[in-house]
Amino acid sequence: MPTLFLVRHARTEWNDTGRYLSRTDIDLSPAGHEQAERLAEWAAIARVNAIATSPSLRAVSTAEAIGVRVGMTPRRDARLRELDFGLAEGRTIAELRSTDPEAVMRFEAEPVAHPLPGGEDPLAALARVRASIVELLAAPTARALVITHNTLLRLFLCDALGIRLAEYRRRFPAVEHCAVTELSTNDGTFALRRFNA
User: Fold this and answer.
1) For residue 6, which of 39, 45, 55 has the smallest C-alpha distance?
2) Which of 75, 131, 144, 163 sits at a 20 to 30 Å CA gap from 52?
């Protein structure tokens, strides 16, 4: 039975200040590099046989720390990039609320129907991450590790577990940096084994 390990990249300085981070390409903070090394220790005993990563620097740095430890080269996949946050990029929710409170109110009520201004359609982002993961899990013995991003992971988890997509912010408030979420799959049906472990 294929196993999927989902991991949010290690911390960056922007994560520490609560700024929306999608397309800006910044590396890990010193604490983030330490997180990646600890995750690599886990990966060395988890029998991972495939690693796919978002091409964003923060994800690649996380994945490469693991790859060195387990003797694998992570495969970069643009479909694993974070949802594009549009005009929210680099800003906090408080900053957004001060300039466009109505847009924030709509987003908080229905984030899929009303993404952040100028942002990517969450349904399109979900379609691309789903396609990437389906390919990774094609082998019945797959034990695939995916290094990607907070919002993309929450959208995928809702979809995989049959939860209404608009609930992704409420049902999964945050995927913690370098925490492991594990799912198994059988005939396209996913079972959640652990979350934020």
Assistant:
1) 39
2) 163
Helix (H), strand (E) at residue 5 = strand 3-8
C-alpha span between 171 and 161 (Å, rounded): 11
Which residues make Cβ contacts (< 8 Å) with residue 113, sequence separation at least 6?
Answer: 106, 166
* Residue labelled with tokens 């396609």: 131
Q: pLDDT tens digit string along 27-79?
A: 999 999 999 999 999 999 999 999 999 999 999 999 999 999 999 999 999 99
Enter the DSSP assignment of 45.
H
Query: How far from 111 is each of 94, 171, 184, CA to CA, in Å?
Result: 16, 13, 27
Write a three-state SS string for 47-83.
CCCEEEECCCHHHHHHHHHHHHHHCCCCEECHHHCCC
Alpha helices in 5-149 (DSSP H): 13-16, 30-45, 57-70, 93-99, 101-109, 122-136
Cα–Cα distances in Å, from 13 out to 10, 31, 58, 120, 127? 10, 9, 11, 23, 29
Taking the complete model, does pTM exceed 0.90, yes or no?
A: yes
Give strand pairing partners of 5. Answer: 145, 182
**Relative orientation angle of helices 150-161 and 122-136, to the nearest 10 degrees:** 70
Measured CA to CA, the distance from residue 74 to residue 64 in angstroms comes to: 7
What CA–CA distance (Å, rounded) separates 40 from 193?
A: 20
